[in-house]
């Protein structure tokens, strides 16, 4: 059951929740496991959710007529339309979320450095791209922390990820309260953190808060 007092993170299901990798494996990830107590997870396996079986033949990203396709070399099937439709639906129905932990190097979930082959044959060459499902996450939530499990083993990246998840979660709480007093409190509690990330945005927020503070005082 979802608890409102915890942030919500969308996580690739193969990271400790289900044996849904193409080879029937699951990956146990210590950080994802540790975080279970502190966040609500929404698990997702785009490949299984579009109807692919486990185990299954590997799929890959290929470039065909300048379009990125999700291709299964063994059968020659293309699953781009299914993945596009699924991703659209998933993000349309997704409620409040504060971050993503996705499986790296996957043609569906990888957020960076996913191999995009320049044709159906591997020998043609490849370049770096983003998994199809992950590209929807990035497009829909450009302001949220979206990380791969591998990058989160780096403690600096992990720290930034957690800061962003929790600050965004707290800000959404303020937004829901619809209270300028809560916004002022949020601003003063997090002033130095905001300063460390973006001085000009902190200044901008300070102006908003100061104007409203004056309005509150005038109404008293
Ligand atoms: S990487 Fe994504 S699509 Fe692949 S098994 Fe894991 S959750 Fe499913």
From TrEMBL:
<dbReference type="InterPro" id="IPR007553">
    <property type="entry name" value="2-thiour_desulf"/>
</dbReference>
<protein>
    <submittedName>
        <fullName>Uncharacterized protein</fullName>
    </submittedName>
</protein>
<dbReference type="Pfam" id="PF04463">
    <property type="entry name" value="2-thiour_desulf"/>
</dbReference>
């Amino acid at each position: 059951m979802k608890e409102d007092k915890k942030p919500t993170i969308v996580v690739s299901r193969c990271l400790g929740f289900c044996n849904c990798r193409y080879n029937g494996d699951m990956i146990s990830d210590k950080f994802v496991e540790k975080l279970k107590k502190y966040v609500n997870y929404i698990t997702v396996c785009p490949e299984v959710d579009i109807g692919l079986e486990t185990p299954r033949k590997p799929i890959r990203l290929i470039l065909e007529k300048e379009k990125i396709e999700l291709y299964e070399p063994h059968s020659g099937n293309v699953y781009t339309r299914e993945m596009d439709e699924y991703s659209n639906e998933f993000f349309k129905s997704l409620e409040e979320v504060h971050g993503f932990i996705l499986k790296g190097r996957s043609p569906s979930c990888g957020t960076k450095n996913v191999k995009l082959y320049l044709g159906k044959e591997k020998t043609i060459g490849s370049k770096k791209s983003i998994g199809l499902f992950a590209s929807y996450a990035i497009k829909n939530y450009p302001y949220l922390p979206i990380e791969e499990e591998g990058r989160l083993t780096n403690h600096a990246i992990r720290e930034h990820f957690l800061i962003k998840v929790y600050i965004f979660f707290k800000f959404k709480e303020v937004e829901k309260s619809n209270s300028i007093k809560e916004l002022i409190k949020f601003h003063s509690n997090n002033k130095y953190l905001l300063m460390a990330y973006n001085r000009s945005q902190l200044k901008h927020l300070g102006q908003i808060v100061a104007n409203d503070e004056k309005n509150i005082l005038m109404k008293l």
